[in-house]
Amino acid sequence: MTYMNHDEAYPAEYLADILKSVKTIAMVGASPDPTKFSYGVLRVLHETGYDMIPVNPKEAGSEIRGLKVCGSLADIDRPVDMVEVFRSSDALLEVAKEAVGIGAKVLWGQIGVRNDEAARLAEDAGMKVVMDRCPKIELFRPFWKPKLNQVI
Q1: φ and ψ at 92, to 5 degrees?
Q2: Closest to 66 (Cα-Cα) out of 53, 85, 84, 80
Q3: Where are the alpha helices (DSSP H) in the chain?
Q4: In whole angstroms, how far apart are CA 80 and each of 10, 63, 110?
Q5: 3 state SS of 93
Q6: Are 109 and 131 a contacting pair, CB within 8 Å?
Q7: What angle do the packed helices 116-124 and 92-101 form, to 10 degrees?
């Protein structure tokens, strides 16, 4: 079993590999409020071409940016590659358990979201884990654009 050292910077290749291999991203804690950071990240990732699934129990059944909101990861009707988490660090362990339950390949905690127990649980299940990082920021690091074949 390989565990990442989440106290050190993630290798650029590790993050780039995740961002170019995932297609479907469930965003736990997605907000319909355009002033919220999660909304902006959802917008950019969706516009970049990822299949985004907003997850928010308070908004279940409604839409964010035209995307149907699911109440939980278990409510999603298709395979999920990555679970991105806009929740508190304390909530990450429960989300990690749900992510393992749906067979996701990656657990990604947004900036400020870190829980070592959640990371270990996900890694024990074979998932890749990133914590305290923003995929939108990582996606737009200039040296990755050619590797990701993204049109910006």
Answers
A1: -65, -35
A2: 53
A3: 12-21, 37-48, 92-101, 116-124, 135-139, 145-148
A4: 22, 18, 17
A5: helix
A6: yes
A7: 10
Q: Looking at residue 69, what is its pLDDT?
A: 98
Q: What angle do CA 31, 109, 138 make, to 5 degrees?
A: 95
The pLDDT-based confidence of 140 (bands split at 50, 70, 90) is confident
Which domains are present in the chain?
12-146 (3.40.50.720)
Average pLDDT of span 4-32 = 94
- Cα–Cα distance for residue pair 85/33, rounded to 1 Å: 17
| Selected residue with higher pLDDT from 148 and 86 | 86
pTM to 2 decimal places: 0.91
Q: Which residue has the tokens 């400020």?
A: 112
| HSE value, Cβ hemisphere, 13 Å, CA-based, for 92 | 26
Q: Do 73 and 99 form a contact (C-beta atoms < 8 A)?
A: yes
Strand partners, 83: 26, 107
Given this model, what pLDDT does residue 152 score?
Answer: 45
Residues in the chain: 152
C-beta separation of 122 from 29 below 8 A:
no
Please state, in angstroms and rounded to a whole number, the distance separating the CA atoms of residues 14 and 36: 28
